[in-house]
Every structure is written in structure tokens, then in C-alpha cells.
Amino acid sequence: MTEPQNSNTAVAAGQQAHCINEILKRLAVRAMGLTGADIERIVREARLKARRGKRAIRYEDIEDGIRGNRPPVPYNLRWRFAFHEAGHAVVHHTLDLGPVRGLNIDTGEGGYNLVGFHVWATDTRDWYENMLTMLLAGRAAEQLMLKRVSSGSGGADDSDLARATRMALDMERTLGFGAEHPLLYRPHRDPGAVLDRDAELAARVHARLEAALDRAAAILRRRRPTFNSLAKALFDAQAMDEGAVLHILTDGDLPP
């Protein structure tokens, strides 16, 4: 009689572990953009709140703490963030670069996306071109929906434009995919200085970026219903985990 009981206990433990993992994933998405110190303080305050209520800590306690740590995002800005991050997600999925693990526009400082990459396709020319397309998809989405773009794609060394520019420059100078002397390995410590000195190189790099931007826009136009649905859902929820994003992305999937 003990075997079924042990089996039931193992099933219950597995279900509980799965539930905890799902809660942690949701919280991780909601907490995008926060520092470790922020999260530590929020958890401490949530525990104190639960203790005062003489109950166990709940998911809502931590979520409320995260939301309370951030100022509300203005309506128009929230739509821009939603379009931008939905653009990245739709193109990332369409080009089969890997999973989209979460999206967040609840920070007040811009949107965040958490994505993974399939290792079997990396390091080819096609993969780099797909990456450029994905990096510029947020800008393409803003142009498509708002008819103008913000500075949100650039302005920092870790921005979409900075990463795409470095990648396109690497394709020309160090990865063997260049239009001129592709077999020469020419490393560069300061991409901006290199591009400023060499107008022809800058033109080739910019042409790669323009092609990627146009390709991203074409994908978003072709997948307009999916893109619109994801942007609307993200605008409403402000944070979406992998399951919620995938449900929309795979509804009526089309080939790239």
C-alpha cells in the first residue's frame, strides 16, 4: 500500500516544483531592469507585509512591490515601448533565432526583451544577417506603426543601433563576410573612429543596416495580425512570460 502513496507524493512534489518554477519565471520577467539590491529590498518588504498580515508571502506581494518601485509609464510612451518590443519578438521568432523568454515595458526607462539563441545556426553569414534584422526590428516597428522613430534604438553602447553597427562592421572587417578583401582580418578597438576615417567602409556598413531594417519591416508587414496582437497584449499586461508570448507568436505561424 505504500507504493501508490509514494508515487502520489512524488507527483504532488513535481507539480509543486513546476508551479514554483512558473511563478519564478513570471517574477523574473516582471523584474527585468531592476538591480539585485532593488529585488532584495522588494522581497524584504514583501516578507514584512506578509508577517504583519500573519500569513505566508504571496506572489502578489512581490509583484506589487516591483510595480510600486516604478513610476507609471505615460500612455503614448507605453504604446511605443509595446510596438518596439513586439517588433523584436515577432522577427526573432519568425527567423527562428531561438525562444522569446519574456517581454517587459513596465520600467519607465524603455522596454526589455529576454531571448535565447539556437546554437546550431550561429556564426554563419545568414545568422549574422538575421541578427541584424532582429536588432533593427524595434526601430522598424516604430516606423511602421507611428510613422516616426525615437532615439530608443540608439544613444548607448549597448543599444540596438550600437550592437548592430558593431556586428555589421565585424562582418566587413573580421568575420570574413566583407565586400572588400574578405580574407583580411582587420580588428578595430574603436568602431566609431574606424567608420569616421573610412567613408567607403561606412557606406558598406550602413547599406547592411538599411537592408536589415527593410527586411525587418517586410516581416512585420507580412505578420501584421500577429504583431498587432502581441503589441496590444504587451501594452495591456506590461510584462509577459514565455508562455504568453509564444501563444500569440505561434497562432497562425507563417514561414520566414
Mean pLDDT rating: 85
Structural class given helices, strands, pairing?
A: mainly alpha
Task: Briefly note the CATH topology name of the largest domain.
Answer: Methane Monooxygenase Hydroxylase, Chain G, domain 1
Q: Give, in spatial order, the strands making up the sheet with the most strands.
A: 2-1-3
CATH class of the largest domain: Mainly Alpha
Radius of gyration: 22 Å
Task: Let me know the largest β-sheet.
Answer: 3 strands, antiparallel
Compute the number of structural domains: 2
Total DSSP helices: 11
Distance linking N and C termini: 55 Å
What CATH architecture of the largest domain do you see? Up-down Bundle
CATH superfamily of the largest domain: Peptidase M41
Cofactor: Zn(2+)
Keywords: Hydrolase, Metal-binding, Protease, Zinc
Protein name: ATP-dependent Zn protease
GO molecular function: ATP binding; ATP-dependent peptidase activity; metal ion binding; metalloendopeptidase activity
Can you describe this structure?
The chain is mainly α and 256 residues long. It folds into 2 domains: 2-68, no CATH class; 75-249, Peptidase M41 (Methane Monooxygenase Hydroxylase, Chain G, domain 1, Up-down Bundle). 64% of the residues lie in helices and 5% in strands. It contains 11 helices and 3 strands. It has helices spanning 2-30, 36-52, 59-68, 75-94, 125-135, 137-146, 160-173, 191-197, 199-222, 224-237, 242-249, and strands at 100-104, 112-115, 239-241. The protein has a 3-stranded antiparallel sheet, sandwiched between helices. A hairpin with a 7-residue loop joins strand 1 (100-104) and strand 2. Helix 4 packs across helix 10 (224-237). The mean pLDDT is 85.
